[in-house]
Write a structure and sequence with these properties.
The structure holds 2 protein chains of 2 kinds. Chain A has helices spanning 7-14, 18-25, 29-37, 44-54, 58-61, and strands at 3-5, 62-64. By secondary structure, chain A is mostly helical. Chain A has a single domain (3-64), classed as lambda repressor-like DNA-binding domains (434 Repressor (Amino-terminal Domain), Orthogonal Bundle), CATH 1.10.260.40. The chains are: A mainly alpha, B mainly alpha.
């Protein structure tokens, strides 16, 4: 999975659960869970909303890791 | 076209031909008085026992649909929004039961319609009872679906749309989040591809059946119309989508 994230770390740091984070950015709890597990790559809009909620740069939540096949 | 593509096309045509030959031989074997008699007897059996079949469908399909809906509700009610991992497990189990319930409910409705179409006869004594049973089944299936959708909307108030409205699917889809929409689109595309292939199979079967068993042109006409509708509706939405290529979520 080339897109890695520290969403769970950020969320725990903020002291909210998946449902509350979902409400803050307008998605379901299930979608937050999928992103945290790396099973779903969110859209740019959602990434920006998450970065705004945590008040950190996008790069602090999401990082792109080159696949070996891409190199 | 390169050599590989041409070779692949020839292989596919050969495989199609072999399947056609096998199917034709099978139908030729079926075109014997003994088998035709079995089919006729089965038809008579269904017509004669249609009342019992209606009740059987209710017990074997509608009641399990209600059971799975209740099971889904039990799982969804366990979600506390506090324990994320546990909630995931309950949500998955709830979704599985919910989808199963809706699948069984739709199957129940379709089989009822099919049975009604197959056994429709104005001269039979219990004609009005049959009409009542069909309407009762349709109402039961519709009510269960509406109750289930309303329940899902109650536990997730983001989801909009009035289940009895013609705009329901549009409103419901618009209220889903991006991950849910992606899942719906993927399911829709896979279902389209599968149903297209199945319809193609039906066209082949109806053509060969008409050639060997003289089943008539109506089944061929209907299966071709279904495929035509599938392909044109897909193309229509593809063309419509081209005008608005920017994904807005």
């Amino acid at each position: 999975m080339p897109l890695e994230n520290s969403l769970k770390v950020q969320r725990v740091k903020m002291g909210i659960n998946q449902a509350e984070l979902g409400n803050l950015v307008g998605v379901s709890r299930q979608t937050i869970s999928l992103i945290e597990r790396g099973d779903y790559n969110p859209s740019i809009t959602l990434v920006l909303k998450l970065s705004k909620v945590f008040d950190v740069a996008v790069e602090e939540i999401f990082s792109y890791q080159e696949d070996k096949e891409d190199e | 076209m390169n050599k590989k593509t041409i070779l692949r096309m020839i292989v596919l045509m050969v495989i199609g031909g072999i399947i056609g030959i096998i199917f034709s031989i099978g139908l030729l074997k079926l075109n014997q008085p003994a088998y035709i008699n079995i089919a006729t007897q089965t038809g008579h059996f269904i017509v004669k026992n249609s009342l019992a079949i209606y009740i059987g469908l209710f017990l074997c399909l509608f009641l399990p649909a209600v059971y799975h809906y209740q099971k889904a509700k039990r799982n969804y009610n366990q979600i506390t929004d506090m324990a994320d991992d546990k909630d995931d497990a309950y949500e998955k189990a709830g979704e599985k039961s919910f989808n199963l319930s809706m699948l069984i409910n739709s199957t129940y409705l379709i089989l009822n319609m099919m049975l009604f179409g197959m056994t429709f006869d104005k001269t039979r004594g219990d004609f009005f009872l049959i009409i009542f049973l069909v309407m009762f089944s349709a109402i039961c299936a519709a009510v269960l679906e509406i109750i289930a959708i309303k329940y899902i909307q109650k536990i997730d108030n983001r989801l909009k749309g009035e289940p009895t409205s013609f705009r329901f699917h549009q409103d419901f889809l618009e209220s889903c989040d991006e991950a849910e929409k992606l899942r719906i689109y993927k399911c829709g595309y896979n279902a389209f591809q599968l149903s297209k292939n199945v319809t193609l199979g039906f066209i082949v079967i109806t053509i060969i059946s008409n050639l060997i068993l003289n089943t008539g042109i109506f089944p061929i006409f209907i299966s071709c119309m279904i495929m035509l509708m599938q392909v044109t509706s897909y193309s229509y939405y593809a063309l419509k989508g081209n005008k608005n290529l920017i994904y807005k979520g």
